[in-house]
Design a protein that fits this description.
- Helix content is 43%, strand content 15%.
- The N and C termini lie far apart (142 Å).
- A five-stranded antiparallel β-sheet has the order 2-3-1-11-12, sandwiched between helices. The chain has a three-stranded antiparallel β-sheet with strand order 6-8-7, with no helix packed on it. Strands 4-10 form a two-stranded antiparallel sheet.
- The protein has helices spanning 7-24, 38-48, 59-73, 98-106, 138-143, 172-181, 211-232, 240-257, 263-273, 276-284, 296-305; strands at residues 27-32, 52-55, 89-94, 110-112, 124-126, 129-130, 148-151, 154-157, 161-164, 186-188, 191-197, 200-202.
- The longest helix is centred in the last third of the chain and has 22 residues, at 211-232.
- It comes from Medicago truncatula (Barrel medic).
Length: 323
């Protein structure tokens, strides 16, 4: 029978394994493992088997291994992991899509009872209805100020009651009542706290962003840069087209108001001298591809371009004839 490895040998083996994973994988999910049992963790490992590896361990050991590996390889990007190793956390090394791996981890949540002293992760509300408990159990409800009535020999809760608020510790009375009612209000599993990707660390909420979200955020950023550039007259790539257009408008306005001219201004001046050309241009514009009728403005312009009817004076029927 082989001798059991010593504590020092276990630490050395763990250090070797963690360093190998750091060299092999560039993506790591830092997860919280509070209230996660060994059987549940085994199921998670099985679900991620193939392109991901789950590694748990003491924070001091992980920090030491990461720090020494960073010094050995000269890759200081690994040091970004050290501030994240706080609390009951583990590491999921993966080569797969980060969002898909995160969603796979979230599938393995298990319902759990409200144990005494546990900090509630969510609000716990006891729904109204028949509890199935006999009248001798009303003392539990009275201690917690839950309104009840006796209906057909059993205790019935009249209105929904917020029994425990998020962040509060579960008391003995609340835990006993929920156990009697068969309510398992909490669910636990590995929760992704941070994401490490090639030296960069970011919030897991980033994984939920779609391409449309990124495009929208980029457009907002470009708009803000453009507005600031125009406000302080500082040229940037985003503001340059607007600056050129505004400058052209200013030069055109000066040319129209003075004798100065250039080819583009000549066209504008020609239209201003003969407004009927505006109407001709509107009529000559191609019809809308959807088959819609011309815009009201174009129709009005076309009507204005029609020759005026001969007046009564032109055919000799004026009110005042020539002497």
């Amino acid at each position: 029978m082989a001798p059991k490895p010593t504590k020092a040998e276990k630490k050395q083996a763990y250090d070797v394994k963690l360093c190998q994973l750091l060299d092999e994988f560039t993506q790591i999910l830092i997860v919280n493992a509070d209230n996660v049992g060994s059987k549940q963790l085994q199921n998670i490992r099985g679900g991620l088997r193939g392109d991901s590896v789950v590694l748990m361990g003491k924070n001091t050991m992980m920090k030491r291994s990461v720090r020494m590996h960073a010094e050995k390889t000269g890759n200081n990007a690994f040091l970004n992991l050290i501030p994240l190793l706080v609390g009951n956390v583990g590491l999921i090394f993966t080569k797969g899509d980060l969002k898909e791996v995160s969603e796979e981890v979230a599938k393995y949540k298990v319902g759990a009872p409200a144990r005494v002293g546990l900090v509630a992760p969510i609000d716990v509300v006891v729904p109204p209805g028949n509890t199935g408990l006999d009248p001798s159990q009303t003392s539990f409800f009275q201690v917690l100020n839950i309104p009840t009535k006796i209906n057909k020999g059993t205790v019935e809760i009249i209105t929904p009651v917020e029994l425990i608020k998020k962040g509060d510790k579960v008391g003995s009375s609340e835990a006993a009542l929920l156990a009697k009612l068969g309510i398992r209000p909490f669910s636990y599993g590995l929760v992704v706290l941070s994401v490490y990707d090639n030296g960069s660390v970011f919030n897991p909420e980033v994984l939920d962003l779609t391409e449309d979200d990124l495009v929208a955020k980029f457009a907002i950023g470009v708009s803000m840069v453009t507005s600031l550039s125009l406000a302080i007259s500082y040229p940037t790539l985003a503001a340059a087209p607007h600056m050129f257009v505004n400058a052209y408008k200013n030069v055109l306005a000066v040319a129209v108001a003075t004798e100065y001219s250039f080819p583009e201004a000549d066209k504008v001046k020609e239209f201003l001298k003969d407004p009927s050309k505006f109407a001709v241009a509107a009529v000559a514009a191609p019809a809308d591809v959807s088959g819609a009728t011309p815009a009201p403005a174009a129709a009005a312009a076309a009507a204005a371009a029609e020759p005026e009817e001969e007046s009564d004076d032109d055919i000799g029927f004026g009110l005042f004839g020539d002497d």
